[in-house]
Prior knowledge:
Blueprint: E1 5-8, H1 14-25, H2 35-42, E2 54-58, E3 61-74, E4 80-91, H3 100-114, E5 119-123, H4 126-129, E6 135-136, E7 142-144, E8 156-160, E9 171-173, H5 181-184, H6 186-193, E10 210-211, E11 218-219, E12 225-227, E13 233-238, E14 242-243, E15 246-247
Amino acid sequence: MREYTIRLEEPADWQEVENLTREAFWNxxxxxxxxxxxxxxxxxxxxxIPELDFVMEVEGRIIGHVMYSRAELNSxxxxxxxxxxxxxxxxxxxxxxxxxxxxxxEFSLAKARDMGIGVLCFEGNIDFYGKAGFVLASSLGIHYxxxxxDDPVPYFLAQELVPGYLGxxxxxxxxxxxxxxxxxxPEGFERYEAAFPAKEKxxxxxxxxxxxxxxxxxxxxxxxxGTNADGSINFxxxxxxxxxxxxxxxxxxxx
Length: 255
């Protein structure tokens, strides 16, 4: 691994970092990605933590970035406990699987501990984040809002940075609203995305299933998707609901 430096992000880095984030997440969890838009919007969000907004450089080039945000945990009794989350954490594809991601993560975690952050919760791969001390959140008594309480939720992770911070109680976590920026402003996202170089979206193995916005059918491959007027793939609707830029009329069973 080459020598690297880690420093706070500066406004002059924003465009480069957002493009890096786009490259890092493109077609990873879904066709295309949303993470660069989340980052763009989060910098003006009061939950954003600028003291934990870091870039990693190798030979003067930014190859990595991580951000942190405030969140909260809720108890069944109505109590609220301050919590925090991290991500997106990005490493440029040319520099992945070389140890840089773990180095950036561990550096930022040390800074989070210095700030007195009590617990971190987020969605991620335990095979990677487990190397930095994260465990399944369910093992700490933290439930994910969108899953049953008895479900271990293998993608929902946590780490108690201040021992005893959770108080031995059970809590429920919901991602901060800022992480749903593209869902809340789809037109704004489309305008934002249009400013970047064109890239092809595709379904690939390991992605989360996407659901048709009309009928709700899971879509896990390109050939299940509808088509736009120009013949390109429409990732919002399935082929049974949308074809050549138009919605398919429902077939009546009445004669």
